[in-house]
Amino acid sequence: MNIMDFNVKKLAADAGTFLSRAVQFTEEKLGQAEKTELDAHLENLLSKAECTKIWTEKIMKQTEVLLQPNPNARIEEFVYEKLDRKAPSRVNNPELLGQYMIDAGTEFGPGTAYGNALIKCGETQKRIGTADRELIQTSALNFLTPLRNFIEGDYKTIAKERKLLQNKRLDLDAAKTRLKKAKAAETRSSSEQELRITQSEFDRQAEITRLLLEGISSTHAHHLRCLNDFVEAQMTYYAQCYQYMLDLQKQLGSFPSNYLCNNNQTSGTPVPSALSNVIGSSAVASTSGLVITSPSNFSDLKESSGNRKARVLYDYDAANSTELSLLADEVITVFSVVGMDSDWLMGERGNQKGKVPITYLELLN
Predict the structure, then answer these.
(1) Strand, coil or helix: what is 229?
(2) Which of 12, 82, 298, 333 has the most CB atoms in a 10 Å sphere around its CB?
(3) What is the pLDDT of residue 156?
(4) Considering the chain, what percentage of its residues have pLDDT values greater than 90?
(5) How far apart are CA 30 and CA 27, in angstroms?
(6) Residue 122 pLDDT more than 90?
(7) What angle do CA 55, 60, 61 make, to 5 degrees?
């Protein structure tokens, strides 16, 4: 027999098998043929595998949305992954916001209250952006990749063997049907032989499928470990973010009381900055036992030739050698110099002397 004859016969046999399965399947759907039922244990395993596949896909997709909310970015990453190429690095949202804040603070002036606060907030946002990037990388490696490997690997193998089991089951039931219809002794003997073969093939395929399906329990155990890794990565991320924000809050907490948080305002009407400064100064005075002067006293000081004590409200880094760096809560001596800008005073700490912004100070009586 040449190769061509063999291929023709094989194609004919495959076509006959396909037709036999199609007829059996159709008759089952129409209720005209009996169907061999799988044992309850195997059915439970199949149901568990299908359930695992459905929920793994949902969890995986939603985790991707959580880690990368931008759908266009997810599509781009998917395309690069399929092309087996590394996606270009992009600035994430916290990093972009942080850069905008830093640029704005630099533009407004690091020596101003708002500019200084913007720069500090921007630096913190960029640190959060870095932590966010680390969370995505860690979660993708330790959580998403194992879930994807199950969907694209193990479950595909299970689905393939399950389909083979379905075909073997159709072959078995078709052989049973032919045996029932066989009348002649010779035809009956041939049908019995066919039934024994198809039953053996079905049993062997059922065992292979069962062994694969029982591995789902191991898959659950593996995914549990991956879930713990994901939770640990989130814990690290949120702990970092909390610490960053706590540090930022401490830096901003020494700002003058005229920068009140909206949540602390009992009225819906915004408090003017000058009025807030008076309110905040009164609050400081009541707790410290010191009498705090109102902002108008800065004008009195500028018009006089004397010096006064002032408490530093928050840190200030000198922009050049003519300025004096300040530390929150320290008390320095301040005085006016003729011709100096109205927003500045001269500050003195021991042998150190330099210009200081009045918005960083509270005069003490």
Answers:
(1) helix
(2) 298
(3) 96
(4) 49
(5) 5
(6) yes
(7) 100
Query: Mind listing the pLDDT tens digit for each residue in 204-213?
Result: 999 999 999 9
| Helix 113-139 / helix 93-108 crossing angle, nearest 10 deg | 160
Say how far apart CA 276 and CA 23 lie, in whole Å.
86
The span from the CA of 359 to the CA of 15, in Å, is 90
Q: Are 325 and 318 in contact (CB under 8 A)?
A: yes
Res 364 pLDDT > 50:
yes
* pLDDT tens digits along 268-307: 444 344 334 433 444 444 434 333 444 456 666 666 667 8
Task: Identify whether the C-beta of residue 349 lies closer than 8 Å to the C-beta of residue 324.
Answer: yes
Which residue(s) pair with 323 in the sheet? 355
Cβ neighbours of 58 (radius 10 Å): 10
Structure tokens, 322: 């003519």
* Residue whose tokens read 């996606």: 87
pLDDT of residue 234 exceeding 90, the answer is yes
Rounded Cα gap, residues 254 and 268, in angstroms:
24
- Residues 24-28: what's their mean pLDDT? 76
| Pair of tokens at residue 312 | 């530093």
| Strand ranges across the sheet with 352-357 | 352-357, 344-349, 331-335, 307-312, 361-364
Tokens of 277: 């400064």
Q: Which amino acid is at 352?
A: Q
Strands 344-349 and 331-335: antiparallel
Quick one: pLDDT at residue 293?
Answer: 43
> In terms of Cα–Cα distance, which of 192, 211, 214, 193 is closest to 203?
211
pLDDT at residue 96 above 60?
Answer: yes
Six token digits for residue 49:
């595998």
